[in-house]
Amino acid sequence: MTKFPSITTTAIVVLLSGLFVSNIHAAPDEEQRLQLQALKLDIRKTSNFLKRGMIAESVELVRDIQSRMEKLGTAGDAEVTQELQDLAESLAISHGLLELEGYTLKPLTASAMAPSPMMMANDPAVPGTPAPAPAPLPTTFPTANISFTKHVAPILIARCGNCHVTGSRGGFSANTFEALMQGPAAGKVIFPGDDIGSRLIETIETGDMPRGGGSVRPPELTALKTWVKEGAKYDGLDPKAPINQAGAANPAAMMELEVAAATGNEQVSFGLDVAGVLANRCVNCHSGNNPPGGLGMDNFARFIRGGDSGAPFVPGKPEDSMIVRLIKATGNGRMPRNGPPLTGEQIAKIETWIREGGKFDGESPNDDSMMRINQIALAKKATHEQLAAMRAESSQQMWDLGMPNVQSAKVDSTNFLAYGTMGQATLQELVADADKAADKVRTILKIPTTTPLVKGKMTLYFFQKRYDYAEFGNMIERRDLPADWKGHYRYNVTDAYGSIQVPSDGEYDLEVLLGQLIASSHIASLGNGTVPDWFAEGAGRVVASRMSKKDPRVVEWDNQIESALGSMSKPDDFVMNRLSPDQASIASYAFMKAIMGRGNSYDAMMNSLRKGTNFDEAFQSAFNMTPSQLAAAWAASGR
Description:
This protein is mainly α. The chain contains 22 helices and five strands. It has a five-stranded mixed beta sheet, with helices on both faces. A hairpin with a 4-residue loop joins strand 4 (487-491) and strand 5.
C-alpha cells in the first residue's frame, strides 16, 4: 500500500559556488582525504538518524558537516572541490528534510554543478598559445531566436567539450558546426525543426549524456530544443571553424532580436496596446508559410525574427525601425496596404513601445497568437465586472456552437453563469447545488469572503445526456473526452468554465464534483494566471476528497494512486507533463494531499498567489524549493 508523506520531506538541487575555489595545480593531501572520508560517513549518519526519528541529532550533525565542508572548501584544490560537490549532493536530502521540518540551516549555496572553467579548458592549438576565448556560458536564455554562436556553442563546449569538442569519443565530433550537423558514422544526431526526433536532444533528456558526472541544466536543454525547433541555424562566419574559438562568430551578422521581458514599468504594454493592432491590421497578410517580405506575425517570436529586410525594429530607436517607417509611409509603400492607415495614437504607441525597448509582457512568445496575447492582456486588466461581461459573451458563443438548436435554460447568479440542457427550474436547482459547493470550497481553501471565487465569474455547463457532454467537448475543445469523465474544468485567463454531466441514480455526488471543479478553477485563476494545470487539478481533487471520502469518484482515485505512481520513471513526471492526463491527475492528487497537509507552508503560498505573485516564486518562497525538488523529496520518503 502506498504511504503518503506529510511534507516532512524534501529534495534540494545542490548549489555550490563561492564556498569552493578551484585550483587545478593543487592536489589533496592525506589530511584532506581523511576529512573527506569522515564527511562521507557522517552524511550517512544524518540519513540514519532521520530514519530512526532522531531529528535533533541529525540537525546538529548536518550543521557540523556544513561547517567542516566550508572550511575544507577554502583549500583551493580542484579534486577536493569536486569531492565536496559530490558530498553536497548526498547531503541534500537530509538537509531538505530538516528545513521542511522547520529547522534553520545554512543554505547549500548557489552555482551550477558544472566543472570549473579551468577544469574544462581545451588544449591550445599551438603549445603555449591559448586559443581565442569562446562566448561565455549564459546563465539565462531567450525563449526564442536562439543563436548558435552565443547560446548553443557555449553549452556544447561546457557540457560536451572534453569528449566531443576537443575529442571525438564514439566517432562523434562537435568541434565545428559542420561536424556537429554531419553527426557520427551511425547517422545524424540533429534534424532541423524536429527536436523530438533529434538524437542529441534525446540522449540529454534521458540522462544518457553527458557522461562523467556532468549535466545539462534545464534552461540549457530548453535552449537547445528551441534552437533545433527553429531550424538549427548557423549564425557564424565559417561552419568549418572550431566552435571554441571566438572567431567563429559573425560580428557583422544581421541584427537578431531576442525576447526581452517587460519590467511592468513601461508606459506602453505590448499585449494591451500593440498586439491587438498587429492582430487586427497585419496578421491577415503576414502569416502562414510565405508571408510578404518573409515577415510573419503569427506570434511574437516569429515577428521579432524579422523577414527578408532584417529585424522589424531596433530596440530604443523607433526612428531607425523598419516597421515605423512602413506604417508612417505614404502611397503604395504604406503598411498596412489594405484598409485605412493606422491612427496617430496607434503609431505613437508602437513608437513608444519600441523606444522603451520592445519588451514582451505576454505569456508565450512562441505559442500565443497576437490576438490571444491581446485577449489575455485585456482580461488581466479588466475588473471582475468587466471580465464577467466579456465572459458572458464568449460563454454564449460557446454554448451556441456546442449545442446548436438544443432547447436549453440559462441562469445568471452571483457566483455563476449557467447553461443547461434541462428546464429552467431544474437548472436553478443545480445552480443552488453549485452555490452550496462553493461555500464549502471557500471554507476548505480559506478564500476571503470579499474575494470572488473566480475573477469574472465561472460558467457552468450542465448536460443531462452523456452524448451532449461529449459533443460539447468535441466542438469547443476539439478533443474526445475520456469515457469515464463526469466533468472537467477549463481555465485559460479569458475563459473559466466547468462542464458537467448530471448524475443519474446517485452514481456519484454532484456537489463533490462541483466542489472539485470550482476549487481547481479558483486556484488556476490565482498568481496572475501562472498556476500550472497539475497544481490546480490536484488541489481540486483534494478538496473533493475532503468534502466526501466516500464519493465513488474519490474512492476510485485513491485506488489508482499506487498504480499511477508506479508508472513514473522520475518523481516529477507529473510536474513536467511526462504522463498521460489520467495518470498525471492521480499523481498530482497524491502529491497535493501531502502539500496541502503542510498547513502553514501551503497557506503562505496561497496567500502569495492571491496577491498576484508568480507561481514559481510563490512556491519557492513557501517551500524553499521548486516543485520538482519537492517531488523528489516526496518520492525519497517512500511516498
